[in-house]
Write a structure and sequence with these properties.
Muramoyl-pentapeptide Carboxypeptidase, domain 2, 4 strands, globular, alpha+beta, four-stranded antiparallel beta sheet
């Protein structure tokens, strides 16, 4: 058996996670078309967002409100390889996350599917981050601002309580 470092193990699982997401999408797309694949992908990411948020809360994160969302979502974004800045307002009524690099968009470029990135990103990010917000409070709303996959320099994720 190979002796792998923790970093190698993490990279192995991260690569597998990314690859399986893209592979299943492309196989569903081949059989049922792009729109159906995107519909199914949207439903999968809604569930995945719940799983991820609940797991991070269980692992010791704060359990509610924008402070809890800030702590857990920035952990998730770091683990997923995003480059970002996060700003929680002093009154903790708003959270703004500015993504300057998106690994999912980079995968789309690498796989020569950049022309689809905006359609996928808009749909999946809207659904995924709405679920993340709801997991930390029914009163938390989400707004997707500028997006890298739509030709902007960064993505803006805005949560309000």
């Amino acid at each position: 058996m190979l002796k792998l470092t923790d970093e190698q193990v993490a990279e192995y699982f991260k690569r597998s996670y990314t690859a399986v997401d893209g592979l299943w999408f492309m196989k569903v797309e081949e059989k049922y078309g792009f729109d159906t694949a995107l519909d199914i992908d949207d439903e999968v990411w809604k569930v995945m967002a719940k799983i991820q948020a609940r797991k991070l809360k269980f692992m010791g994160g704060p359990t509610g409100g924008l402070y809890g969302l800030h702590e857990c979502l920035t952990t998730k974004l770091t683990l997923d390889g995003f480059t970002f800045e996060a700003e929680l307002s002093d009154d903790t009524n708003s959270l703004r996350i500015t993504l300057s690099e998106c690994p999912w968009h980079n995968v789309m470029i690498k796989s020569e599917r950049e022309h689809l990135s905006g359609k996928v990103g808009t749909r999946i990010c809207t659904s995924e981050y709405k679920v993340w917000g709801a997991e930390f409070g029914d009163h938390i709303t989400f707004e997707l601002g500028d997006q890298i996959c739509q030709g902007h320099q960064c993505c803006n994720l805005i949560f309000r309580a």
